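Appendix B. One record, verbatim.
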Amino acid sequence: MNNISMKLNADPLILSALQEDITSEDITTNSVMPHYQLGEVELICKEDGVIAGLDVFKRVFTLLDESTEVTFTCKDGDRVRKSERLGVVRGDIRVLLSGERTALNFLQRMSGIATYTRKIADLLEGTKTKLLDTRKTTPNMRVFEKYAVKVGGGYNHRYNLSDGILLKDNHIGAAGGVREAVQMAKEYAPFVRKIEIEVENLDMLREALEAGADIIMLDNMSVEDMREAVKLCAGKAETECSGNVTKENVAKLVDIGVDYISSGALTHSSPILDLSLKNLHAV
């Protein structure tokens, strides 16, 4: 994350996380470390994976005390190994202790998403298909989780409801049908916006193409129907495959030829990457 993005988007959320963990004081730390003492602690990787969120990790400590020094031996996107030392945090021991859990929570969560994303992205390597995330993110964590997807080799779908038009089943129901939904979106939306619509069968797809949709989301369709859908859309609209996509079943989707595969699992089902702050000592 660049400095502007960090200050505008991340800082308020990081501060909120710190306030959640420290409502008035860190009573444990203040018990054992009542006065300033310069110290260091090491960031250790406890399993293989892809690291993401180092700037956020660092920012936790510098928001508590801007004089805190954090140095890393890796960068976001690097593959890291079990037992590897990834960096050192140097500063007021009280800050190191009080910021530890919040900093690790962000880094473990983001690195877990990047690791899981990389596993699926690797399966799509060499194809034209791009791996997308969804809006199925943890509340107030979207900016971090979508960044982690990019670090892991995926791509971001729309960021939020203001960012793009995606007509799903309930929008189609509200509008009265596929054709009506697309037409209403064309009339309302700025001409620079693409219109994506979710279809569940080939009849809906044909209607969406006739109405002029730009992107067709193939939702929970059979592999055979998706193959046919890609042929029907050729030269007319881009295609996106969606619906319960995980690293266990993405292999069967690789050769269908869709432009995009979206997976909510990237952000809602990825396990954390186990990391730890160890060997705290005074200097």
